[in-house]
Predict the 3D structure of the following.
Amino acid sequence: MNSNHNKQAINATPSEFLLGIRAFFPLIFAATPIGLLFGALAAQKGLSPLEVLLMGSFVFAGGSQFLALDLWSEPLPWLTIALSTWLINLRHVLMSTSLAPKLTHWTTRQRYLGFFILADEVWALSEQRAIKTQTTFGYYLGVGITLFLTWQISTVAGSLIGSVLGDPARYGLDFAFTALFICLVMSFWQGRKTGVVLAASGLAAVFTHTYVPGAWYIIAGAAAGVVAAAIQYDDKPANIKAAVEVARS
């Protein structure tokens, strides 16, 4: 009982929460255009601001939300959307498996809440923090809540201005998604071995995307990166982490 209480006291301090907000803050300027882009595209598909807000609240996974919009049509292909989003979100298995051993100081309740808001940016910043020091629940929550609010506000704003925005590509908003994940991938760079992992993952993802319909390229890219990292394995985990992100981007 006391041990559990001490865990919460260590993990959820206000200073750690503020550190998480500060760590994510630079990414706000990359995440916001992505949210605006999604909101604008959703409005053009006929979704209301409320529906965009609800989708972001319950799904909270940018990649699968964009994929769902790509597949959105009349009549709505529910089964195709469900299968495709399940495939693209399988990367969360890799991310949670990577993070779990570093979060043994969290309580069970903290783990359930933490993995509910797990996203690529949250995972990447938490992994980087774990390399240097302990990833506390407060820090993780600061990162996750800041991302959640940024995503919700920007997507709703995008849906409100979507009708007058026109083609988002002319503003370069479509590149923001790619730029953000390039940044996340390169944050794990550790030389030639990481380059091999990125090359294997990227080539597998591109090949699969070209010849296999659906979101299987996400799984193929991640699997190829993991294999390449395993072949080169030493005591540095960053190679495997980078594989997940290059497949995601």
The chain has two domains: 3-169, 188-248. The chain has a mean pLDDT of 81. The first helix runs from residue 2 to 11. The radius of gyration is 19 Å.
